Amino acid sequence: MKKMKKLYNVKMKKLYLWMLVAFLSLGCCSVFTACSEEDDTEAPVVKKEYFQSWNECDALTTLKRYVEDVTNPKSKNFISEEDRIVTFDMDGTFVGELYPTYFEYNLLEYRALDDPEYRDKAPEDVREAAQAIRDFVRTKKALPDHFDMIHARAAAKAYAGMTLAEFDAYVKAYAALPANGFTGMTYGQSFYKPMLEVMEYLQDNGFTYYVVSGSDRFICRSLVESIGIAPNRVIGMDVRLVSSSQGEEAGVNYTMRQKEDLIRTDELIIKNLKTNKVLQISQEIGKVPVLSFGNSGGDSAMHNYCLSNSKYRTAAFMLIADDDVHDHANREKALKLGEQWREAGYNVISMRDDFRTIYGQGVEKVDFTFTTEN
After folding, report:
1. What b/e sequence results for 209-248 when a residue is b if at least 16 CB atoms lie within 10 Å of its CB, and e otherwise?
2. In the 8-state DSSP scheme, what is residue 163?
3. pLDDT of residue 371
């Protein structure tokens, strides 16, 4: 009898332990399941708002429909991300150029006529180019014919001997000055807010954009660094570079040593305008763009190259500086250009009608001021 009772107790203990284990296992499974269900619950998706600085307009509608089409895998016009290449001109396309002229023109004028460390030793042709810019902005005297090349050669001489680091610092120091003709903005802050929103929108949709400018490549790099554009996505005017100890020896015969610097020379390689932009795009990017943005005749060749892309659906956009209230624009000239660009097959962006703001809040157009007489 005692043996039977003992055996019964042992069996009951085993049963109790088995039930306890089962209960705990079930509880753990319930907790795990609850946690898993909680983890699997997706947070609500917050849709990103684009184009806060834009009004609804034909150009913006065209751009959005284009992007929606070519990024849709089911569309016959689908473009894979590696081929979603976009080119942007810089001055007048997403950086201000009416204060009162191009940044690089203002910089050369200062360098040759006002910089106390350089003006007295500036070569005569450099001073003449700088004086032509000064006369143009102060007295409205027309610039000499083919001034883009006159300026390019003068600029090459004006900064010759500077290391790339020295030139970068020089550009950024001038860019930190208040932009002439505006309050609340420096030269280095003079970005068109709506166009930066276009860049963000395109990047978020798998496009890679490049800056393709007629301005000096290293000026462009210095200016766009603050908005996160990498140096290798900038194409511009180029001068020949040499290593600091290279002297007159050809680069193919000279081996650069450690701790040498790269120095600018006075030899112009290319002025990156018109068809030269196309050649540089082909050489440096190696693909034909599918989107192109510009603002002047210097960008037409780049646009036409884009539109000639027979593999993909393409589009080109031209800004016109027709806002004479918020910028120093010639509205009559801009409207004539708008008609010209439409006839060429480009989409026209009106800075007056399509933009809610150009430079952002706190920036106002004022009269130009000139403190140095020459």
Report:
1. bbbbbbbbbbbbbbbbeeeebeeebbbbbbbebbbeebee
2. B
3. 80
Is the Cβ–Cβ distance between 67 and 298 less than 8 Å?
no
Q: How long is the chain?
A: 374
In whole angstroms, what is the distance from residue 303 CA to residue 193 CA? 22
* Block residue for tokens 């284990």: 21
Q: How far apart are CA 224 and CA 222, in angstroms?
A: 6
For residues 122 and 144, give the distance between their C-alpha atoms in angstroms, rounded to a whole number.
20
Please indicate whether residue 373 or residue 23 has the higher confidence score (pLDDT).
373
> What integer is the mean pLDDT of 203-230?
98
Can you spell out the DSSP letters for 250-304? -GGG--PPTT--EEEEEEEEE---THHHHHHHHHHT-S--SEEEESSGGGHHHHH
Q: Can you give the residue ranges of every domain in the chain?
A: 58-364
Percent of the chain with pLDDT over 70: 87
Q: Which residue(s) pair with 333 in the sheet?
A: none
pLDDT value at 1 more than 70: no
Sign of the four-CA dihedral 204, 207, 208, 210: negative
pLDDT, tens digit, for every residue of 299-319? Answer: 999 999 999 999 999 999 999
Rounded CA gap, 91 and 27, in Å? 67
Q: How far is CA 124 from the centre of its chain?
A: 35
Tell me yes or no: is domain 58-364 CATH 3.40.1190.20. Answer: no
Cα dihedral 288, 294, 297, 299 in deg (nearest 10): -30
